[in-house]
Automatic annotation (TrEMBL), chains A, B:
<dbReference type="InterPro" id="IPR036909">
    <property type="entry name" value="Cyt_c-like_dom_sf"/>
</dbReference>
<dbReference type="InterPro" id="IPR051395">
    <property type="entry name" value="Cytochrome_c_Peroxidase/MauG"/>
</dbReference>
<feature type="binding site" description="axial binding residue">
    <location>
        <position position="287"/>
    </location>
    <ligand>
        <name>heme c 2</name>
    </ligand>
</feature>
<dbReference type="Pfam" id="PF00034">
    <property type="entry name" value="Cytochrom_C"/>
</dbReference>
<feature type="binding site" description="covalent">
    <location>
        <position position="215"/>
    </location>
    <ligand>
        <name>heme c 2</name>
    </ligand>
</feature>
<keyword id="KW-0575">Peroxidase</keyword>
<feature type="signal peptide">
    <location>
        <begin position="1"/>
        <end position="26"/>
    </location>
</feature>
<feature type="binding site" description="covalent">
    <location>
        <position position="68"/>
    </location>
    <ligand>
        <name>heme c 1</name>
    </ligand>
</feature>
<dbReference type="GO" id="GO:0046872">
    <property type="term" value="F:metal ion binding"/>
</dbReference>
<dbReference type="InterPro" id="IPR026259">
    <property type="entry name" value="MauG/Cytc_peroxidase"/>
</dbReference>
<keyword id="KW-0349">Heme</keyword>
<feature type="binding site" description="axial binding residue">
    <location>
        <position position="72"/>
    </location>
    <ligand>
        <name>heme c 1</name>
    </ligand>
</feature>
<keyword id="KW-0813">Transport</keyword>
<keyword id="KW-0249">Electron transport</keyword>
<keyword id="KW-0574">Periplasm</keyword>
<dbReference type="InterPro" id="IPR009056">
    <property type="entry name" value="Cyt_c-like_dom"/>
</dbReference>
<keyword id="KW-0732">Signal</keyword>
């Protein structure tokens, strides 16, 4: 073996400085239009636990069969992986279920942004006649009949009587913990050069240079603006959703939707508000043509798809809650009960 | 303070022997017709994990919406807490969903015992036209299109091609871990005198002395024999289930069902094969009159119900699995697809 010459103190110091310099350079966070997802900060764990129970509790629905998790399944990217969700009595959902993951980062909730935040959103499906098809009054009466819930609401909200605001607050608090940090793309954003491959990086460069990033930016790679579906070329669909104009009443907002997050997009197929695009390849192709007036080559499309798959983060680890047991006074739901009020078509 | 006289060595030894004797007596397991549930022994954790994924995977159903957990919900005592389950296209289930908890201890599976074990059972709902309404071929083809599953089946079963036997084997392996040890009653059985109250003990004494235990015995407090529903007095119902005669072809078995477990019965309302009894009070009253020819007083009924609630054990702690992602080749389920074959009425 060759004997190494001992380094002088000065040479050693220089080498160390260089190494530290490289290290700092390698780990320097990148300044990009997409920012990393940060882990959830849980400040009220008891409320999160209560919200989790409500999230999985089908007794919030008329039938006793459908829970929040039915259509925003935390085993499947917080979505249901079907174009239109199944609602009460197998009614067809009005729009593709958006993922609950990272939804807390969105500018507003629902595709048309009609709810300003998660709590505002959470009350919607409970009363929607084609979703859970219950009423806030019925849902609260059920919870009030369950001693385990009464105790938890009392301990957290200091109340004897549960109301829907506490229910949606607890749900929203749980949902706000459903974020997905540590995707490979986020590691790259934080300075780990090896976290994504050359092909994935090329895909990201294309994503930026061809304009996708104009709408899909921020920590959620989307979710922070409204945009017309079909900017350059009209989107052809027989789906009835009219988009943001239903909220604003402005004709100019017709077919304008909240830009969906691309976080975990590998898990949240099918795509678009009508769930018409079955694969990422198809979605990228349609977006390129309709929004950007550009037809991606097969190779470009594959590169962008490869990049999109780096946006899958750590999925929330959820221990299934054991739901508080109904009392003898709790209404016994009957999914097959005769229809009293007519359902919305 | 009074000064204590030091004990002689002999007195100390005698006192110790007495204390140890009391201790031994207090902890001596009881010899009773119901035996404690033992914790699950997991010998193949990878197979349990695969089975858990399949358990929660709605892609085993035609619609992509119904999983095993839909009707045997592990948040709700392994049952769905409705009289009749919701199946594909909201069809009404043929019989009340029995709990999956401790089902491994049953003599056979289904109310009529037509499946000899859990693996034999697991294939049933997938193909049942009023339940998941898929076929084994379709379910396996879906799994085979999902790289994450292909890899797991290969690693566990050493196969490239998945078949339904491996699917049901993995499901059964997971289900066999779903046992509920450490109920208060089991602690009492193991010698802890303070684990149940005097009222609960009175309830258990009544449960034995009036004959309930004749059918509800063994570790599962049931599940180990078939018995006619309506021994002393006929059970009046318009429910079409005919019971064990559908399996044996013997008229004598008409209206004979597997005796359900009473483990976690507090969580598995409503009761009986038709789910007609909404509360334990009602179930105990009907059972007393129809099976034993006895009308329990209100006090006796309450005592038995109190005892039954001591049978709730530790519920399985389940971390929700993250399901392997579909590939572009995976069939995209459509809950609302036109009906091709006629459904069973």
């Amino acid at each position: 073996m060759k004997k190494l010459k001992p380094l002088s103190a000065a040479a050693l110091a220089a080498a160390l400085a260089l190494a530290v310099g490289f290290q700092a350079q390698a780990q320097k966070p990148r300044d990009e239009p997409i920012q990393p997802i940060e882990p959830a900060k849980v400040t009220d764990p008891a409320k999160v636990q209560l919200g989790k129970k409500l999230w999985f509790d089908p007794r919030l629905s008329r039938s006793g069969f459908i829970s929040c998790n039915s259509c925003h399944n935390l085993s499947m990217g917080g979505s249901d992986n079907v174009a239109a969700s199944v609602g009460d009595r197998w009614q067809k959902g009005g729009i593709n279920s958006p993922t609950v993951l990272n939804a807390v980062l969105n500018i507003a909730q629902f595709w048309d942004g009609r709810a300003k935040d998660l709590a505002d959103q959470a009350g919607g499906p409970i009363e929607n006649p084609i979703e859970m098809n219950s009423t806030h009054a019925a849902a609260v009466a059920t919870l009030q009949s369950i001693p385990g819930y009464v105790e938890e609401f009392k301990s957290i909200y200091k109340v004897d009587k549960i109301d829907i605001k506490q229910v949606t607050d607890a749900l929203a608090t749980f949902e706000s913990t459903l974020v997905t940090p540590n995707s490979r793309f986020d590691k790259w954003l934080k300075g780990d050069n090896k976290a994504i491959t050359d092909v994935e990086l090329k895909g990201y460069e294309l994503f930026k240079s061809t304009g996708c990033v104009a709408c899909h930016n921020g920590p959620n790679a989307g979710g922070n603006m409204f945009m017309k579906m079909g900017v350059v070329q009209a989107y052809k669909t027989d789906h009835p959703a009219e988009g943001r104009s239903a909220v604003t009443g402005n004709e100019i907002d017709r077919f304008t939707f909240k830009v969906p997050t691309l976080r975990n997009v590998e898990l949240t197929y099918p795509y678009f508000h009508d769930g018409a695009a079955k694969t990422l390849t198809e979605a990228v192709d349609i977006m390129g043509r309709l929004q950007l007036g550009r037809t991606y080559t097969k190779e470009e499309n594959a590169q962008i798809v490869a990049f999109l798959k780096t946006l899958t983060g750590d999925q929330p680890q959820i221990t299934l809650p054991i739901l508080p047991v109904s009392s003898d006074k709790t209404p016994r739901p009957d999914p097959f009960a005769p229809i009293v009020a007519p359902m919305k078509k």
